[in-house]
Amino acid sequence: xxxxxxxxxxxxxxxxxxxxxxxxxxxxxxxxxxxxxxxxxxxxxxxxxxxxxxxxxxxxxxxxxxxxxxxxxxxxxxxxxxxxxxxxxxxxxxxxxxxxxxxxxxxxxxxxxxxxxxxxxxxxxxxxxxxxxxxxxxxxxxxxxxxxxxxxxxxxxxxxxxxxxxxxxxxxxxxxxxxxxxxxxxxxxxxxxxxxxxxxxxxxxxxxxxxxxxxxxxxxxxxxxxxxxxxxxxxxxxxxxxxxxxxxxxxxxxxxxxxxxxxxxxxxxxxxxxxxxxxxxxxxxxxxxxxxxxxxxxxxxxxxxxxxxxxxxxxxxxxxxxxxxxxxxxxxxxxxxxxxxxxxxxxxxxxxxxxxxxxxxxxxxxxxxxxxxxxxxxxxxxx
Amino acid sequence: xxxxxxxxxxxxxxxxxxxxxxxxxxxxxxxxxxxxxxxxxxxxxxxxxxxxxxxxxxxxxxxxxxxxxxxxxxxxxxxxxxxxxxxxxxxxxxxxxxxxxxxxxxxxxxxxxxxxxxxxxxxxxxxxxxxxxxxxxxxxxxxxxxxxxxxxxxxxxxxxxxxxxxxxxxxxxxxxxxxxxxxxxxxxxxxxxxxxxxxxxxxxxxxxxxxxxxxxxxxxxxxxxxxxxxxxxxxxxxxxxxxxxxxxxxxxxxxxxxxxxxxxxxxxxxxxxxxxxxxxxxxxxxxxxxxxxxxxxxxxxxxxxxxxxxxxxxxxxxxxxxxxxxxxxxxxxxxxxxxxxxxxxx
Lengths: 383, 346
Known about the structure:
The structure holds 2 protein chains of 2 kinds. Chain A is 66% helix and 9% strand. Chain A has 11 helices and 8 strands. Chain A has a 4-stranded antiparallel beta sheet. A two-stranded antiparallel ribbon of chain A has the order 4-5. In chain A, strand 6 and strand 7 (238-242) form a beta hairpin. Chain A is globular and about 80 Å long. Chain B has 3 domains: 2-27; 33-131 and 234-336, D-Maltodextrin-Binding Protein, domain 2; 134-230, D-Maltodextrin-Binding Protein, domain 2. Chain B has a 5-stranded mixed beta sheet, with helices on both faces. A 3-stranded parallel beta sheet of chain B has the order 4-1-5. Chain B has a two-stranded antiparallel sheet with strand order 2-3. In chain B, strand 2 and strand 3 (63-64) form a beta hairpin. In chain B, helix 3 (66-79) packs antiparallel against helix 11 (300-307). At the A-B interface, helix 4, strand 6, strand 7 and helix 10 of A face helix 4, strand 9, helix 6, strand 10 and helix 7 of B.
């Protein structure tokens, strides 16, 4: 091969510039850390952390390692992001469609919601939900029971815990139902393509997902009981609920504010997607006798999704990154636990911040890889 | 190309050697931090984001507190004017990075002196300006009067990035009590959450509890429990590696404490120049060459006492008269039953 200088010259210069810049920062950090007697290394990750965390999905206390504390923070970040993405997507799609509704009230209400929530800084919204809304919640001893079993108090939401017997049989019954539904859908599609007959797939699916688990209860020996939280007195005016599952108010406030905020952007993506489909498409679909629901499901949405998915991916990434504002309201996410407490206790600023940055980068890349895969899947297949 | 490489290397090596040589000789004469401070014309001081009595800004942006006075003392000593200080409010989490990265030159922010902080992370503690201990605050209405009444399930609000978080675990573990730690980044948010009823108890250094109590919506509804669960010697911190600067900060603090011991105040400091006691004369720059070793003039300590006052004046002005902790407790001079004891200026 014969390279010409003008071809590789700019590339070579870029590589040299990148190496020099990184080299300078590394060298600078090294020299200054040495001057100040700071050691560099990741050995601290295996040391005992000796601090506790309020809320953890895995077993953790101060006798575990810093690495375990990192996992606790990471899982809490993932938890709040997943909850946030789930609620934001559902809410966003509903509001996005509502904004196109011919009903004046629904339309204007959706528009008001979008304009209101997307134009207030997220941190303020988090403070509002946590400090303002939290203050309005009752103390545990004054809380009214919701449906007689759950309690929303200033110290958190207490819900009954499920106590299963033979849970695995119940689980298998659901797996079996899902497999059956996939097979039936496949058959129904084939049936329509070859013979033009339609099968009520939705009805059959709902039936399956209800009946199979029900059978597991009747003859499979599956039993479900609830452990309802009970009030416990700690001191004259200090109470908590014991038993059941408690969701900390920090998680609720953060998930709520993240979803309400991000849903406004997703709603706009959805609206843009639907409006991006030519009017002629809908008219043509209607003229061959499709019902309005079928028009939306079979003609508009498959095309609109191609417009909706890429900007929505950005919103998912934003939500995940915005979850780092958790530190302001004591939700123990990655930033609070690892880049906060662990950084302070060890003083390993460069190491911990680099790990944290790399973690957020990886999370974002995983989300966008998944969304790109989904986008490719629904893209128009050239045949 | 390669034939120049050798020459280039030797040139770089020569420049490097020359550079090292010059910086070393200058550092021997004068502290780099001191030189920079005098060039800038102000002392860069890291303080808290608002802790009454220790470091707190009023509506006009004037900082007061005993931690603030340490920085003012250094400014009086090295720049001749106690007001030439630039204060940087820092959260507990940011404070050490700000100091090690060179953003500030003194960290005077109710910081506990511990082995790992002193040895590990490039810091040097210069002394203690407040002997403190961790305590607990509860609502009076709870009926709790002692930590022995704490029960499983208690929720405790505190700050992240502090020794408090570690002591809290030690304390509850040793008592075998299960607790829920709720840790915030900023002190104001801890107070707001505790005040709203999110937590049953609020734990931090006792001085901090006393100071934060004044910020509650109704201070009289809260009490600080009598037990002290840890030793928290609070003091100013400097970067490791500049021993002259370290000495200046240490002896600025020591001067304030020793001045109280000898009864030298901001009002009588000038008159003390003619005292019969040589120890007093040394403290007001009338005898000996007490500033030369730091690269300062001889009246550096007189300026501290005249402009900032002695430790007792600073304590009275910031902590006693503001009603935070009228009783000096261990922060009384050793001659009066406390544990404040500093090496002599001689």
